[in-house]
Amino acid sequence: MKKTVAGWAAFAAVSAVVASAQPAAAEATVHGCVYPRVCFYLTEAQFTAGTPTAAYQDADYNQTLGSKSKGADVVYNSRNDDTVLLRVGTTSIAICLDPNTTLYNDATVTVTAIRIRSTPAKCSDLFETWPSS
């Protein structure tokens, strides 16, 4: 599945492509991302090479991204049952990733924080409100 979003009202000319992969088996590795992590790739070349620059796996709290994940071009959610919220800049807007899904950001999108959610198991929409805590 591939989804493209363009013309996001809060940002000029924003687009994101979301693609789904087959569910990963326990301890499986997809694009160098070991289950159950959410992996960040600063460039598409690093994603293609299977070399994530950062990975997160702790759930249910907001985490500020570091220099090896902030502004990543590609994010992959290897988790089978958890959704991921990715905060855009300092806004209250977040991109939601379903399990086993890849997000491709363009240069206008800067992801700055992550929240791995144990519930719900599916995103209600591509864009959601960033939780305050």
Write a concise synopsis of the structure shown:
The protein is mainly beta and 133 residues long. 5% of the residues lie in helices and 41% in strands.
Give a written overview of the molecule:
5% of the residues lie in helices and 41% in strands. The protein is mostly beta strands. The strands form 3 sheets. The protein has a 6-stranded antiparallel beta sheet. A 5-stranded antiparallel beta sheet has the order 7-12-9-10-13, with no helix packed on it. Strand 3 and strand 4 form a beta hairpin. It starts with a strand and ends with a strand. The relative contact order is 0.24.
Structural class: mainly beta
Shape: globular
Average of the residue pLDDT scores: 85
Measure the end-to-end span: 31 Å
Strands of the largest sheet, in order across it? Answer: 1-2-11-8-5-6
- Radius of gyration using CA atoms only: 13 Å
Our estimate of the beta-strand percent is: 35-45%
Number of strands: 13
Q: List the uncertain runs.
A: 1-15
User: DSSP helix count?
Assistant: 1
Biggest beta-sheet profile: 6 strands, antiparallel
Helix content: under 10%
Helix and strand succession?
EEEEEHEEEEEEEE
What's the helix and strand layout?
Layout: E1 2-6, E2 15-20, E3 29-30, E4 33-34, E5 38-41, H1 44-49, E6 54-56, E7 63-64, E8 74-77, E9 83-88, E10 93-97, E11 101-105, E12 111-117, E13 127-129
Antiparallel strand pairs: 1-2, 2-11, 3-4, 5-6, 5-8, 7-12, 8-11, 9-10, 9-12, 10-13
